[in-house]
Structures are given as C-alpha cells and as structure tokens.
Write a structure and sequence with these properties.
Largest sheet: 3 strands, parallel
CATH topology: Rossmann fold
Order of helices and strands: EHHHHHHEEHH
Strand order of the largest sheet: 1-2-3
Shape: globular
Strand content: 5-15%
Number of helices: 8
CATH architecture: 3-Layer(aba) Sandwich
Structural class: mainly alpha
Number of domains: 1
Distance between the termini: 12 Å
CATH class: Alpha Beta
C-alpha cells in the first residue's frame, strides 16, 4: 500500500485566487510569450517569490530548471492542471485511491485559498497541515517544518 503527500495543491478550481500581477503577465498573451523569451534570472526569481509570504533565497538549480521550460509547455501545464481538477476535485480523486494522504498548505498561500484545504478533510486517511505565515512554496519558505512533516508521514505512513 502506498501513500501520497501533496504540497500547495488546490482542491478545485474555485479555490484558485486571483494571481499576482507578475504571474498574470508572464502567463497570459500578449506579453507572456515575449517576456518568456527574454526572461532573466532576476525575473524568474521574482516570479517564484511573488507567491511566497516569507523572504526566500531561490536556489540556482530551480532557476535553471524553470529556464529550461518553454513557454508553450509552461502554459500547457497550467491549463492541464486546471482541467484535471475541474474534471474531478482532488479530494474526490484521493478518496477513490484509499491511501494515507498528507496535505501541506501554507496558511498565507496567495495562489490557493488556504481555507480551501478543509475540503481535504472529507478524504479518509488524510491529514491536513497548515504552516503559519507560509505562502505557496513551503519547501522554500519553511524547509525544516516541511521536511519534518514529510519525514514523519513517510515513517508512519500516516
């Protein structure tokens, strides 16, 4: 039997908040494709920190990985993620799996309404953890707390 941990995964499309301006500009035409072509490391770092609540140092390898993603791929991933949860909510999908689930949510996530994490309470064998003052990237904003939750969950399977 397996288990699953989700970090900053919105339960359904209605939980998505209005996106920060920088992300909207990067994501949407007509400026998105142009900016994506000339994006600098500083711009990519600002894009990551736009959804953080705490100051973070964005690792160079993360910037390099994002730099390696083409604009079309970037847009496709965002659209497909939206279509996936619109078709069937994450809590409904997880209930059908019947495995232990850990959901980690930043209590100050600017992408997904943090209060929407309560939708995961309907999933049997799920535990929802809110990290105070943390935005969309708990692994960058609160790496110790995030890793502690993940390690404890992996050790116990719950």
């Amino acid at each position: 039997m397996g288990s699953l941990a989700l970090i900053s995964s919105g339960p359904s499309p209605d939980a998505l908040l209005p996106q920060p301006v920088l992300l909207r500009v990067l994501i949407d035409p007509p400026l998105g494709p142009l900016l994506w072509r000339v994006r600098s490391d500083a711009m990519l770092r600002r894009g990551v920190t736009a959804v953080c609540n705490r100051p973070v140092d964005v690792p160079n390898d993360l910037v390099a990985d994002v730099r390696g993603i083409g604009y079309r791929t970037f847009r496709t991933v965002l659209r497909q993620n939206g279509a996936y949860i619109a078709e069937r909510s994450m809590p409904a999908r997880l209930t059908a799996l019947d495995v232990p689930v850990l959901v980690i949510f930043g209590a100050a996530d600017p992408r997904w309404d943090p209060s929407s994490a309560h939708h995961y309470d309907t999933v049997p064998n799920a535990r929802v953890e809110h990290l105070p003052d943390v935005g969309h990237f708990p692994m960058l904003e609160a790496p110790e707390a995030t890793s502690e939750l993940l390690l404890r969950f992996a050790a116990t399977g719950r």
